[in-house]
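Board notes (copied after class):
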Amino acid sequence: MPPTPPSFDAARAAHAAGTVAEWLEVLWGRGQDGTTLGSLPPSQLRALTVVEERAGANLRTLSDALGSRPPSVSRLCDRLEAGGLLERTPSATSGREVELRLTSRGRTALHDIRALRRHEVTEVLQTMSAAQLAALAEGLEAFQDAARSRVGLEQPSATIGRGEADTA
């Protein structure tokens, strides 16, 4: 009879996820200065990720997704725009709102950072068994879907681990 897997409750899984997140930060920081833009602050990277998902979103949508106040997000967008990563354009539907979009430089920055991160994580994953990788992928896909829903991006997650590789 195969061994019974340990039971996990939400608190134990949250602790494990937190620990993994810390290690991911260590791995992702390795060599990030070698990207075209150097290291981006986490707040800017989070904002670029949300804007990529919701091109044309307004400041309120970005504020809600980030869990930040609109004035703080506006200043964050000022910095991203000054760095050539984000552009704000007048909304086609409302004269009082702006739409947020990544510039080509913003898309390139995300691509470069993701490529570096993938490389670092791949080095670690190659030390794991096929069964461990399958269990990890299944759990991460479920977590991604739940996290997207939590921040208001409820469409299904990308096909990573579901038959297609991330080429972005």
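Comment from the instructor: The radius of gyration is 18 Å. The chain is about 55% helix and 5% strand.
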